[in-house]
Amino acid sequence: MDTKASGSHVxxxxxxxxxxxxxxxxxxxxxxxxxxxxxxxxxSTELATALLRHGLVRGDRVATLxxxxxxxxxxxFACAKSGLVLTPLNCHLTAIELxxxxxxxxxxxxxxxxxxxxxIEDACSISxxxxxxxxxxxxxxxxxxxxxxxxxxTINDDDTLLLIATxxxxxxxxxxxxxxxxxxxxxxxxxxxxxxxxxxxxxxVLPQFHIGGWNVQPLxxxxxxxxxxxxxxxxxxxxxxxxxxxGVTMMMGVPTTYLLLAQEPGFNDADLSSLRTVVAGGAxxxxxxxxxxxARGVEVVQGxxxxxxxxxVFCLAPEDAFTHAxxxxxxxxxxxxxxxxNATGSFxxxxxxxxxxxxxxxxxxGYWDNPEATKDAxxxxxxxxxxxxxRDEAGYYRICGRNKEMYIxxxxxxxxxxxxxxxxxxxxxxxxxxxxxxxxxxxxxxxAFIVVRPGEVLDxxxxxxxCRTHLAPFKVPSEFHxxxxxxxxxxxxxxxxRLKTTLFQAS
Length: 507
Fold this sequence. Notes:
By secondary structure, the chain is α/β, with parallel strands linked by helices.
């Protein structure tokens, strides 16, 4: 049964049309398994109809908690064909954090792999959701019931395909809605800058709960008929072995990915002859690290993006890696970028500095059930990123700061307010503040400043263990500083600049 589509940019058509052209070509390799394009198309169609027969209706959210698995890919295409919204949850989150997201996104179906099933059961039990979790590996069989056959609906370009959580707060997480058209245009722009062909072998280690786990190479690879080697976790030694044994030609990661690979004892002797290009995002890649990969004959493509832009915004071509070290490049095709001066309320012409505004068919329509946040993010058709950049005379951009306080640790977004809220709930903590600091492995991490309640005693070990119980590992601060009081501005707001100064003087 083919996917119906009134729009030309619906993602379900990608796998159907590819399967019609090359049904026997391998779409996914996973731990010795091979899934052909024909099998992926047939399986996703059967699952799409089973989901609808199960009672789900167009626009319903399907929440998932899983490591990278082919069943998750099949579920994505099933959602694409049935008008459902895949809502992948970060498998590093605690049950408490997951419960907050279940409450916020109200999924009609909750699915988890066997590896994460106990955690999602715990999350469901403490959430307001009445959903009963299903096992991802057995989902098709579990949904097969003696119900009437049902036709797949007509899918439109502006139908939502993905809901991606942009923060993991225990209060009210935001979920970015991404349409079929958003995914189409960001992949088309990617293909014009970092092209993929049917002969490519793409290694995916980036997790599928990130938008980059779909829209930075994997979906484009399946559109073009390439093979995706899917890994459930990142293990440097295994990655180097796979590159050699499977003839991997491309991969995507964060700078930490390539640092850990370069630090692996077998890196210098590993066979990387097939590896043509690696894509790095999430943070700047040090020049010394780029030099290591260039010395092995591998081109490094860098850039900048955010979930709300699906995510691709800027691309720094390999030939610019050294002449524009530390820059994020120029906008992708079909992406308009402007710099906005918040002080004057006007756009910056030519060379200058300002907040990055993004416009184009890749920009999301808004946040799930959050009109106020949507209004804040979208201004007269432009997406306000909250990031500040400078632009040179040749049109290259460099990120120079953030209006928002979010920082990126190992490619993961961390919001200080969330960590502060958890720390402040400790019975011995009077006040807490978190700022970003440089980290040799993760790029950035958190430094926590703690004011202890009078008469109580706390140490780093106690605070670290406490945070690990309530927060995902990447959110746990790497250092703690006990201080008598938090610095504040004359009007009583936390003065993060003075915190940084305090930290600098202490070092």
